[in-house]
Design brief:
Blueprint: H1 12-19, H2 24-27, H3 39-46, E1 59-63, E2 67-68, E3 72-74, E4 81-82, H4 84-95, E5 99-102, H5 111-117, E6 123-124, H6 132-137, E7 139-140, E8 145-154, E9 170-174, H7 178-186, E10 191-195, H8 198-207, E11 212-216, H9 217-226, E12 231-243, E13 246-247, H10 252-267, H11 270-279
Helix pairs in contact: 1-9, 4-10, 4-11
The chain binds glutamine.
């Protein structure tokens, strides 16, 4: 596990509890209403916009995998990206005097390469854990949320992290995630099935195609509550991860501007407001 993430310990239990409070129905379709007006800072920030080296002037262009509720997913009413991260990105862009622009959905394991290669997006935001491996390829903003992993099984299953470590067991994950790393390190005997799509993995566990699925705990909690009521979290895995915003190593000015805006959002209550909207409480 130490390989998975940079250290941290705080906020873990709180997150596990808070994630349960999220309600998709209550939150859907209102992402554009997030307010983060900070009229005083936008003029300071826009003066430095030229040096931010954005792929599109005046815009913060975001790459994301949009199947990761409650962090980023497509609102079926508006057909637009919505979620905690989307509100955060919108508020962040506003603080920087920019408009947020989401690129179409892309696979999770293409996000870091997209930012590393450059030219398409300024940032990747998708509940992306800050890891040493990824930091070799790209930079991360300061952390904005603590998270853990969950082992999801059928409600009727008695499997856990011991019984699943067997060559007869299939354990799914989203390809390229810290969940995949956890399975490799902790269930080395199981058959690892790396998928692109969270829903496909959850459905596969439901139908018995896979025996388990390892995914970020807040997403597991959300999916089990909203859609997959016949699944359960067999084990909460305290990996102590932190999410950060991925920025190119070639754009340190952008990273600095993002960190400044993030700090303002932490200080002026914007982050608290977004956390309360999506998790029912501050984290
Ligand atoms: N937090 C996990 C990771 O960074 C999963 C992210 C995701 O699937 N969107 O690997």
């Amino acid at each position: 596990m130490k390989k998975i993430s940079k250290v941290l310990t705080g906020g873990v239990a709180a997150l596990a509890t808070c994630a349960l409070a999220f309600s998709l129905a209550a939150c859907g379709g209102s992402s554009s209403s997030t307010s983060s007006s900070s009229s005083s800072s936008s003029s300071d920030n826009s003066s430095s916009e030229a040096s931010l080296n954005l792929v599109n002037d005046g815009k913060l262009t975001v790459a994301a995998e949009l199947g990761f509720a409650p962090f980023e997913y497509i609102d079926t009413n508006t057909n637009q990206p919505t979620g905690f991260d989307v509100d955060m990105a919108t508020a962040l862009a506003q603080k920087m005097g920019l408009e947020v622009n989401y690129l179409p959905n892309q696979k999770f394991d293409t996000l870091v390469p997209t930012i590393k290669e450059g030219g398409k997006a300024d940032v990747a935001i998708a509940g992306i854990t800050i890891t040493d491996e990824r930091e070799e390829e790209v930079d991360f903003s300061d952390p904005y949320l603590d998270s853990n992993q969950a082992l999801v099984v059928k409600s009727s299953s008695s499997d856990d992290d011991t019984t699943l470590n067997d060559s007869s067991k299939k354990v799914a994950c989203q390809a390229g995630t810290t969940g995949e790393e956890w399975i490799k390190e902790n269930l080395p005997n199981a058959q690892l099935v790396a998928l692109d799509d969270v829903t496909a993995a959850m459905t596969g566990v439901e139908t018995g195609l896979y025996d388990g699925f390892v995914i970020d705990l807040p997403v597991a909690d959300n999916q089990l509550k909203e859609s997959f009521t016949d699944l359960k979290v067999a084990k909460e895995i305290p990996t102590g991860e932190q999410y950060g915003i991925v920025v190119s190593k070639d754009n340190p000015a952008l990273k600095e501007a993002i960190n400044k805006a993030l700090q303002e959002m932490k200080d002026d209550g914007t982050m608290d407001q977004i956390e309360t909207k999506w998790f029912g409480t501050t984290l």
